[in-house]
Design goal:
The chain is an alpha/beta fold. It has helices at 22-25, 30-43, 56-69, 85-93, 132-146, and strands at residues 4-10, 46-52, 72-76, 98-102, 124-127.
Length: 147
């Protein structure tokens, strides 16, 4: 059986994990998180493609192209999760399984972070589990693809 290709999109400032508040975002840089994800993904026959963008338009373009290239999408849109109708709309157009991830528990943070605009355009959300949240998202997408 061919491996399923999963796109992982990380949004603005996630390239600064390890430099931001470690109590909220952890201490490992995104590159180390990606290594963990790759190692675990091979165990469940997933191929991961990682992208990180600090610009909203780049995220939207990547989502627009995702259905033609990938079998699933994991997205941590960072601060755009709470502000971007355009990313929501791009996710709505995208017809592959989509899971939203947040490293921190956004429900226990500032009021403006408690509402994710993009959640309703995704199949599910994982919040507050740190880097493990990405693993949960991968397992969820794998289940969606095999059922």
């Amino acid at each position: 059986m061919p491996e399923n290709k999963i796109l992982i999109i990380n949004g603005p400032n996630l390239d600064k994990i390890g430099q931001r508040d470690s109590a909220i975002y952890g201490v490992e840089p995104l590159s180390e998180v990606n290594i963990l994800l790759e190692r675990e993904a091979t165990k469940i026959d997933l191929t991961l493609i990682f992208q990180q963008f600090n610009h909203e338009g780049d995220i939207i373009e990547s989502i627009h192209n995702a259905s033609a290239k990938y079998d699933g999408l994991v997205i941590n849109a960072g601060g755009f999760s709470h502000t971007s109708v355009a990313i929501h709309d791009a996710l709505e157009i995208c017809k592959i399984p989509k899971i939203e991830v947040h490293l921190s528990n956004v429900l226990n943070r500032e009021e403006f972070r408690t509402n994710s605009i993009i959640s309703k355009a995704c199949n599910g959300s994982v919040i507050g589990m740190g880097k493990v949240g990405y693993l949960a998202a991968l397992f969820a997408i794998k289940q969606m693809l095999t059922n």
